[in-house]
C-alpha cells in the first residue's frame, strides 16, 4: 500500500542543533531581553541586519522564540523583514511554524512576504497548516498566502498536510479559501487518502461533504477504502462505503480492501466488508494462485477471519 507521510520542513530538522557563539544582539534578542536590546540598538556599532554563520538575523531569532516586544523594537529600528537564513527561512516562516499569532500579525503589517519558501519549498502557510495553527493560517490567507504552493520533493500542499495530521479546523478553513479538495502530491496521495490512512473520521467527513472523490488512486493504485481497511479504521471504512466506495476495488498489485484487512487481522473490518458483498475469491496479482481466504488460512492467528469468510466463500461456489 502507498503510505502517506509528511515531509519534514528544514526547521524541524535543525531546531535542536547546538548553537555556536553569536553576536550580542542575537543572544539578547533570542532571550527576549527587551532592555538589553534597547541598549544595543542605541549604540552606533550594532549592525541590525548582521547574521550568524547560519544566516540568522536578530529579528529571525526573536520571531522564532516568540518575543513580540523585541520583534517590534527591531522592526522599528529598520530590521529587514524578509532576510532569509541559509536554509531559506524568514522571520515570518519561523513565527508561523511556532504559532506566534501576534508576531505573524505584526510581520504581515510590515509587509513580510507571505509566500517566501524555504529551500524545500515549505511556505509559512504550509508549516502553519502542518502544525494546526488555525489562527496563523487565517492571518496568512487574509494576507494573500498561496494555499496551492507545494513542497519541492513531495509536492505536499497545506490541505494535504493538515488532513494527514488531523487538524480539522485548519482543513475547514483551507477549504473555505478554495483549496482544491482533490489535490494530490507527487505520489498521487489526496487529502482524503491521507485522512483515511490516519483514521481522522472528522476530516474524512469534511472532505467528503466538500466533494472529495473517493476513487482517486495513488500511483500504486491504492484508494482511501483500501488504506482505511488495511489500518482497521472501521468508522472510516463505513463512511467511505456509505459514499459508494467500490468494495472490490483493486490496487495495481490486485489487492482488495478485504485482502488488506485480512492481512492485518482486522476482524470487524473483514466482517463489514463481507456483509457489503466483498468477494473472497479475487486473486492477488502478487500471488496469483492465492485467493483472499486461502491467504488468510496460511496466516497465523487468523482463525476468526477464516470463519468469517467461509460462508461467503461457499455462497460464491453455489
TrEMBL record:
Protein name: Ankyrin repeat domain-containing protein 17
GO cellular component: cytoplasm
Keyword terms, alphabetized: ANK repeat, Repeat
Start and end residues of each stretch annotated as Disordered: 1-28
Record organism: Geodia barretti
UniProt ANK repeat ranges: 54-86, 87-119, 120-152, 154-186, 187-219, 220-252, 253-285
Gene3D superfamilies: Ankyrin repeat-containing domain (1.25.40.20)
Residue ranges of the TM segments: none
The keyword Repeat belongs to this UniProt entry's keyword annotation: yes
Amino acid at each position: 500500500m502507498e503510505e502517506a507521510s509528511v515531509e519534514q520542513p528544514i526547521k524541524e530538522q535543525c531546531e535542536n542543533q547546538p548553537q555556536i557563539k553569536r553576536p550580542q544582539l542575537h543572544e539578547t534578542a533570542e532571550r527576549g531581553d527587551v532592555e538589553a536590546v534597547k541598549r544595543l540598538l542605541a549604540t552606533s556599532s550594532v549592525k541590525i541586519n548582521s547574521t550568524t554563520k547560519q544566516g540568522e538575523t536578530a529579528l529571525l531569532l526573536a520571531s522564532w522564540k516568540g518575543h513580540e516586544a523585541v520583534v517590534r523594537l527591531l522592526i522599528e529600528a529598520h530590521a529587514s523583514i524578509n532576510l532569509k537564513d541559509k536554509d531559506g527561512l524568514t522571520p515570518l516562516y519561523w513565527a508561523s511554524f511556532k504559532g506566534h499569532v501576534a508576531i505573524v500579525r505584526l510581520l504581515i503589517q510590515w509587509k513580510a512576504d507571505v509566500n517566501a519558501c524555504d529551500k524545500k519549498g515549505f511556505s509559512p502557510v504550509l508549516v502553519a497548516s502542518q502544525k494546526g495553527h488555525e489562527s496563523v493560517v487565517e492571518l496568512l490567507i487574509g494576507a494573500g498566502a498561496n494555499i496551492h504552493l507545494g513542497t519541492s520533493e513531495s509536492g505536499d500542499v497545506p490541505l494535504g498536510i493538515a488532513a494527514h495530521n488531523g487538524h480539522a479546523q485548519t482543513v475547514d478553513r483551507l477549504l473555505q479559501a478554495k483549496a482544491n479538495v482533490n489535490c494530490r502530491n507527487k505520489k498521487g496521495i489526496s487529502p482524503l487518502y491521507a485522512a483515511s490512512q490516519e483514521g481522522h473520521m472528522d476530516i474524512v467527513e469534511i472532505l467528503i461533504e466538500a466533494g472529495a472523490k473517493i476513487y482517486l488512486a495513488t500511483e500504486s493504485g491504492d484508494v482511501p477504502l483500501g488504506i482505511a481497511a488495511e489500518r482497521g479504521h472501521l468508522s472510516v471504512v463505513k463512511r467511505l462505503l456509505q459514499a459508494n466506495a467500490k468494495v472490490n476495488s483493486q490496487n495495481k498489485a490486485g489487492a482488495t480492501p478485504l485482502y488488506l484487512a485480512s492481512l492485518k487481522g482486522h476482524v470487524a473490518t473483514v466482517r463489514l466488508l463481507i456483509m457489503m458483498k466483498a468477494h473472497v475469491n479475487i486473486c492477488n496479482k502478487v500471488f496469483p494462485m492465492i485467493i483472499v481466504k486461502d491467504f488468510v488460512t496460511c496466516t497465523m492467528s487468523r482463525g476468526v477471519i477464516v470463519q468469517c469468510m467461509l460462508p461467503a466463500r461457499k455462497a460464491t461456489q453455489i
